[in-house]
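Need residues for this backbone.
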């Protein structure tokens, strides 16, 4: 019994501490870091898992999800980031996240985030259903996000982002800004693209954190949506299909 209580206490200590909400978005503390925030992609430590294409037969996706969970069971270091597999199937994603939580993982990341960003309806469905079915203090991490999509991802409950997209775009000679991605050759702004792209990410996070403190993150997501057709689609789908989720956390005046 004492061992169980100790294990439970250890898990609780690893979990994110939520300090405040701005809609579904969460201001929290994860270790020494305030969330939402970005982490260095080059220093990530994730649990071994079975990489699975986004569009694949459900039987294969389910088998790979089970294998991912088995690998997570064998991992001794539960402070690592565990991967939510399940391809395009929301029920598999939710099941995978719940099973990883039972194994005492408190930081979970989504696989296939590049494809999710190109499928706004699926992105919202998967993230929101996972967020609703796991412990609110479990940290959700979304890698490879563009600067322009990060505010709305934070708004719906993502806690951690990373530098992977900034590094990728720099290698492809692209400049990231708050609203778009441009060929660097057309915008002679910097000699160090990776550094500038990461700076844009950091500015985005600072802007999100300040808006959350002011309870105005929704305003920021609407501003971003007005500058990008894909973000406008994402915003409209969020309001149309997930009102119950939004109203659950939105303060009434």
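Answer:
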């Amino acid at each position: 019994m004492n061992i169980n209580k100790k294990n439970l206490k250890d898990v609780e200590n690893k979990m994110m501490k939520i300090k405040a909400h701005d809609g579904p978005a969460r201001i929290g503390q994860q270790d020494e870091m305030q969330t939402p925030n970005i982490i260095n992609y080059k220093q990530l430590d994730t649990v071994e898992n079975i990489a699975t294409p986004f569009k694949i037969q459900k039987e294969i996706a389910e088998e790979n999800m089970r294998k991912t969970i088995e690998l997570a069971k064998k991992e001794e270091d539960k402070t690592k980031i565990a991967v939510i597999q399940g391809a395009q199937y929301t029920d598999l994603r939710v099941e995978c996240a719940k099973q990883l939580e039972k194994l005492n993982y408190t930081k979970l990341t989504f696989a296939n985030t590049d494809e999710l960003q190109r499928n706004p309806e699926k992105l919202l469905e998967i993230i929101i259903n996972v967020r609703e079915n796991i412990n609110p203090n479990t940290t959700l991490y979304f890698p490879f996000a563009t600067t322009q999509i990060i505010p709305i991802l934070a708004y719906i409950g993502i806690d951690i982002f990373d530098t992977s997209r900034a590094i990728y775009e720099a290698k492809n000679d692209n400049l990231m800004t708050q609203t778009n991605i441009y060929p660097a050759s057309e915008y002679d702004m910097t000699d160090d693209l990776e550094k500038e792209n990461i700076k844009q990410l950091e500015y985005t996070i600072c802007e999100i954190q300040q808006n959350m403190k002011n309870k105005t993150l929704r305003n920021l997501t609407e501003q971003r949506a007005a500058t990008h057709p894909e973000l406008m689609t994402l915003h409209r789908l969020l309001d149309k299909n997930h009102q119950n989720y939004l109203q659950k956390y939105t303060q009434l005046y």
